[in-house]
Amino acid sequence: MIxxxxxGGFFLSTALIFGLIALGLNLQWGLTGLFNVGIxxxxxxxxxxxxxxxxxxxxxxxxxxxxxxxxxxLAAAAITATAAAFxxxxxxxxxxxxxxxxxxxxxxxxxxxxxxxxxxxxxxxxVAFIPRPFASVQDQSVLFNLSNLGxxxxxxxxxxxxxxxxxxxxxxxxxxxLREDERAAIALGKSAQSYRVQAFAVGGAVMxxxxxxxxxxxxxxxPDNYLPTLTFQVWAMLMVGGSGSNRGALLGAIVVWAIWxxxxxxxxxxVPADLQARAASLQIVAIGVMxxxxxxxxxxxxxxxxxxxx
Amino acid sequence: xxxxxxxxxxxxxxxxxxxxxxxxxxxxVARGEILGLIGPNGAGKTTxxxxxxxxxxxxxxxxxxxxxxxxTEPAHRRLAGGMGRTFQIPxxxxxxxxxxxxxxxxQHQTGERLWANFTAPRQVAxxxxxxxxxxxxxxxxxxxARLADEPARVLSGGQRxxxxxARVMMxxxxxxLLDEPAxxxxxxxxxxxxxxxxDINAAGITFVLIEHNIDMVSRLCNRIxxxxxxxxxxxxxxxxxxxxxxxxxAYLGGAAA
Lengths: 310, 257
Known about the structure:
The complex is a heterodimer.
Chain A: H1 2-31, H2 39-54, H3 69-90, H4 96-116, H5 118-121, H6 141-168, H7 170-180, H8 182-187, H9 192-218, H10 228-241, H11 246-270, H12 276-279, H13 281-297
Chain B: E1 5-16, E2 19-30, E3 34-38, H1 45-53, E4 60-65, E5 68-69, E6 83-85, H2 98-104, H3 116-119, H4 121-141, H5 157-169, E7 175-179, H6 187-202, E8 206-210, H7 214-220, E9 223-228, E10 231-236, H8 238-243, H9 245-252
Parallel strand pairs in B: 3-8, 3-9, 6-7, 7-8
Antiparallel strand pairs in B: 1-2, 1-4, 4-5, 9-10
Helix pairs in contact in B: 2-4, 2-5, 4-5
């Protein structure tokens, strides 16, 4: 029972971190219609920023700043927002699939830099000894997991409330207008360029914060954490939960993560040991099948506004 | 005419590759006027509007709005500067409600700045209340008030034209460019539209009107400019335009030659 509680805390913490990323994507796609397929890159920038700023000195790697965790998180959000704003500015002329290909490229570049810039990121070995909140109770796993869940839930709630306020604000209304008809919005006095960069920056800040929170929760990061699979998972979460809805982004994250973890344990239990590595692909199949079912049964997702993806 | 000039274009030219869609067009619009802009299809009327509204960049020539040179000013600044436009095919935001469509058009809203929603929520709320009130009043004027909370996609073609007119009024413009407001509007709704344009004009707002419905043009405009092949063909009163042999030829087939 106690174990289950500890595991539940761990599961929910991970799911809520995905929920945070999905909230960032919902601002960019659900509200503004920006086809960002570079999510993993922005999460990585946040994770590495905070990790580098907070870890103790390490041989052969930039660092030793030893910042407090919260300062690392805020810096991660700010740095990722800057990187995302720059991406948004550089891609001002690109729409839909062209924007998708470009942002995907950005994520690949970020991941390759993380893999190769060894003196900055530790290269393939990653960054270890990232300070974890409540590290003093690390060996009491239930207490540790539940305390962390509390912190992560609080961060998620704060971001959710802030994004809810923004989505309902005149600012959010302009983003929706740009999504619907950019030319009309410009004729009505809105700078499409400025709002697009802002949407990239705010969504990026949330993704970067999520990356940082996850890095400190686990205590170790490596380039393999930030492969395109992550981007795929978050998109699936938003589609399932309902594009355009912040509640949907959170619920979708929990449901999709449950299916991901569940299908992982099922294959682990049923597939012979020598085929385990290949069977891991079945997780992606499980998500794909579920995505198809959701799109057939309820195309707008659980909480979607009914707007079809375009 | 000695009245104050609110909008003036001098030798406006737009080339697309080798084709000059607008070729050395000049026009001056006086305050309180309703100027008609007519001409056969392909004459360059809509390109002329796009140039005036800034959605297409000028190849040469200048545009002045109330004495200020706006030739290179970005399109999104022109409404706050006093000039609004509607589109030939209306462009409502389909998933936004009519009320939200209206609110988008209000200029200088504090709540459209990201941080103000956290630092000055009261001011944002107060401005929103005022804007909503104005929006409901304008929707009432075009007989769309009962649909205020419906998404704009439910509107008919004619209602979309009315919404566009009401929407641009939210910005308190001095000059409104109307691109074929009568196209596809049923006769009953057209009467509403003409009456509203007259009301708005009576309040001192200037119009430039592209229109193929000659009856509507004659009823609204004192002065008409005829364009053909990107240039000015004729300028005069509606009755003069109807009699002019060059205009008749341009419409009846001479233009293509």
